[in-house]
């Protein structure tokens, strides 16, 4: 993988959007009891912080949920597809706790909850060619995490994709088994979408926090944060990370 490219078809739907990109090399994502208690507290604090995005008793009317539902109405999607941040906030709204999974998942879930933004991370070593985000044609190969069969993309759906098929369907809804993050992942790309100025401000803070937490938990230095817009739609992997 050499770069992330946001296609023109994405900007046609969301001309004022911004997509933040972060590259990281050399992580050790195997879980450890050494920081388990710290990660558990990280998730607890993030769950509490997420309460700021749940001020309306009617869940769907909370601004973060409403904004992303309206965004998902702009393209063809699989029935029931929702933004990843809505799924996390729904768990908070139901009073459910977040147990540690592995260090990187715990870190990006905590950032997503704290700032009310969708966060995705893919294993860069599994991406074939460049990774794109845009409206796709019907039939791109996609096997969801945990599924045992292919569920191809729809015509006009917004998805991340590479030379082999879809990487994440319906914007940030569901990852492919092929490129998913595992304990053995070492080189990654983090993505974060925002579609209006208020979301962009939170996403910028969130990506900076993600970079700091990755440095803290994995003792590696992430790349700079790339802020992709319609005028700057690509982020090349830094030479020292290729």
Textual characterization of the structure:
- Residues 66-219 form the B3/B4 tRNA-binding domain.
- This is B3/B4 tRNA-binding domain-containing protein.
- Pfam families: B3_4.
- InterPro entries: B3/B4_tRNA-bd, Phe-tRNA_synthase-like_B3/B4.
- With 242 residues, the protein is an alpha+beta fold.
- It has 6 helices and 10 strands; from the N terminus they run βαβααααββββββαββ.
- The chain has helices at 8-13, 36-49, 63-72, 84-93, 103-115, 197-218; strands spanning 3-6, 18-24, 120-123, 131-135, 158-161, 166-169, 174-175, 188-194, 226-228, 234-236.
- The protein has a 6-stranded mixed β-sheet. A 4-stranded antiparallel β-sheet has the order 3-8-2-9, covered by helices on one side.
- It is globular and about 45 Å long.
Q: What's the overall geometry?
A: globular
Q: Give the ordered list of helices and strands.
A: EHEHHHHEEEEEEHEE
Strand order of the largest sheet: 7-6-5-4-1-10
Radius of gyration: 17 Å
Distance between the termini: 8 Å
Organism: Candidatus Limosilactobacillus merdipullorum
GO molecular function, one term: phenylalanine-tRNA ligase activity
InterPro entries: B3/B4_tRNA-bd (IPR005146), Phe-tRNA_synthase-like_B3/B4 (IPR020825)
Protein name: B3/B4 tRNA-binding domain-containing protein
């Amino acid at each position: 993988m050499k770069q992330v490219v946001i296609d023109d078809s994405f900007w046609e739907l969301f001309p004022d959007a911004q997509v933040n990109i972060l590259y990281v090399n050399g992580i050790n994502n195997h879980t450890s009891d050494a920081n388990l208690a710290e990660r558990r507290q990280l998730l607890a604090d993030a769950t509490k912080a997420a309460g700021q995005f749940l001020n309306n008793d009617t869940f769907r009317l909370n601004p973060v949920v409403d904004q992303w539902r309206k965004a998902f109405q702009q393209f063809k999607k699989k029935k029931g597809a929702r933004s990843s941040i809505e799924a996390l906030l729904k768990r908070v709204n139901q009073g459910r706790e977040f147990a540690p999974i592995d260090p990187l998942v715990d870190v990006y879930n905590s950032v997503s909850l704290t700032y009310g933004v969708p966060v995705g991370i893919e294993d860069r070593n599994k991406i074939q060619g460049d990774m794109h985000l845009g409206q796709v044609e019907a039939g791109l190969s996609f096997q969801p995490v945990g599924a045992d069969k292919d569920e191809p993309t729809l015509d006009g759906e917004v998805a991340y994709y590479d030379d082999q098929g879809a990487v994440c369907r319906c914007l940030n809804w569901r990852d492919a088994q092929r490129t998913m993050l595992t304990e053995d992942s070492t080189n990654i790309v983090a993505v974060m979408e925002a579609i209006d100025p208020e979301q962009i401000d939170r996403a910028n803070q969130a990506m900076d926090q993600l970079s700091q937490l990755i440095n803290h938990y994995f003792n590696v230095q992430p790349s700079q944060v790339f802020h992709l817009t319609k005028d700057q739609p690509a982020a090349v992997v830094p030479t020292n990370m290729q």
